[in-house]
Design goal:
Elements lengths: L2 H33 L8 H15 L3 H10 L8
């Protein structure tokens, strides 16, 4: 690899890492919202979206979810 290719690859990695941090914040905020929301308090129209969000969050590896919560300085609330 030449110097220009190395620089382009480095820039791409930096961009991907910045995007990962933004996505972790979104996931962390979503996880905190789900953990602190009671289904009985949601409007009927929002329950399906909340269930889908909860299911998707549950598919994440524990380490990723923990990173996400830490990125927004949230703590998971025991059920």
């Amino acid at each position: 690899m030449n110097k220009q290719e190395t620089e382009l690859l480095s820039q791409e990695i930096e961009m991907l890492m910045a995007e990962r941090q933004r996505l972790l914040k979104v996931v962390g905020a979503a996880a905190a919202l789900v953990a602190n929301t009671h289904a009985s308090e949601l409007p009927a129209a929002a329950i399906g979206a909340a269930e889908l969000l909860s299911e998707l969050l549950n598919t994440l590896p524990e380490e990723t979810l923990q990173d996400a919560l830490e990125s927004v300085r949230a703590e998971s609330v025991p059920s």
